[in-house]
Amino acid sequence: MNLFLAPLQGMTIAYYRNSFARHFGNIDEYYAPFITTSKEEKIGNMLFKDLFPEKNDSSVKLIPQLLGNDGEQFKLYARAIMNLGYKEINWNIGCPYPMVANRKRGAGILKYPDLIKTFLDNACSDSSYEVTVKMRLGWDDLQDGVRVIEMLNEYPLKSVIVHARTGIQMYSGHVDLEAFELLMSLSKHDITYNGDIFTVDDYERISKRFPNIKNFMLGRGALSDPFLPAAIKGNSFSKKDKIITIHKFHDDIYNYYKSVLSGEQHLCDKMKEFWSYLYVSVGKDEKFMKKIKKCNRASDYLELLPF
Predict the structure, then answer these.
(1) What distance in Å separates the CA atoms of residue 101 and residue 169, rounded to the nearest whole number?
(2) Which residues share a beta bridge with 161?
(3) What is the pLDDT of residues 243-268, one digit of tens each?
(4) Residue 40: pLDDT band with limits 50, 70, 90
(5) Which DSSP string do the residues of the chain spell out, in sequence order?
């Protein structure tokens, strides 16, 4: 069994991934937040700064991710990423946010199988890199996903990650395990399960239902409880050790952002995002988050910390 950490835009950047791996570990692959392709023929190197080898610890197996709907652009960007030493590129057709989907990108492309076919004809014409796909059950209908899975079967993909929600659900409601099972049964590729694994019980329930699934992607569950990957793999920590480790992890992230951001407001905003996931792991509730959200000065923020 392998565990992957899902990409969260603006959150799981290189420094976060490195620190997560150092303090919590038990993740086999980390997926980088997507880079959006464009029509520019010359690609600025700084666009890929989050992927630079010198920014990513060698212990972190990183999978770059691209977002777009043009296969030629994908190929151009993939070649630039290959020059940084990567072999595998993930294509994101799962992002549900309207600003992405309305442009027929991310999950928005799932309603346009002909566009997906044209994309893959171009993207997969270069065999010097491997392509994986991260998708959803469909945009607003399972039949979208069925058509897409059947189309993906025609291409030499390394694997397919399926988030067991539709695009219009975004992150609300429940995952649809029956729909996931149907897509899994239709796919000729290795399938990775993604969606609503927040506890060990969640993992065990889903893994027992799908015994042939060997790869599981964790997202919000791992950011809220960074000890979840270890627990899934049978490792345990005392409550005291958890608090000490989260304290060190927090200080890593806080000091990093303090060194690269200008102004206390920006620093506090980043840490608000950090705690929006993690507060439950230190026994805090919404009252704590309301206080954190009101912070605009570092001194006020530091006084609220539960360490």
Answers:
(1) 12
(2) 134, 192
(3) 999 999 999 999 999 999 999 999 99
(4) confident
(5) -EEEEPP-TTTS-HHHHHHHHHHT---SEEEPPPEE--S-SS--GGGGGGG-GGGS-TTS-EE-EEE-S-HHHHHHHHHHHHTTT--EEEEEE----HHHHTTT-GGGGGG-HHHHHHHHHHHTT-TTSEEEEEEES-SSSHHHHHHHHHHHTTS--SEEEEESS-TTTTT-S---HHHHHHHHHH-SS-EEEES---SHHHHHHHHHH-TT--EEEESHHHHH-TTHHHHHTT----HHHHHHHHHHHHHHHHHHHHHH--SHHHHHHHHHHHHHHHGGGGT--HHHHHHHHT--SHHHHHHH---
Q: CA 37, CA 302: separation in Å to the nearest integer?
A: 39
Pair type for strands 88-93 and 130-136:
parallel
**Closest residue by Cα to residue 163 from 189, 185, 184:** 184
Q: Regarding predicted confidence, which is higher, 236 or 50?
A: 50
Domain ranges (residues) in the chain: 2-232, 239-304
- Contact criterion met (CB below 8 Å) for 277 and 220: yes
Do 246 and 282 form a contact (C-beta atoms < 8 A)? yes
Q: How far is CA 151 from its chain centroid?
A: 24
pTM for the model: 0.96
Instruction: pLDDT band for 42, please (50, 70, 90 cuts).
Output: confident
Residue type, 202: D
Percent of the chain with pLDDT over 70: 100
User: Would you identify the CATH topology of the domain 2-232?
Assistant: TIM Barrel (3.20.20)
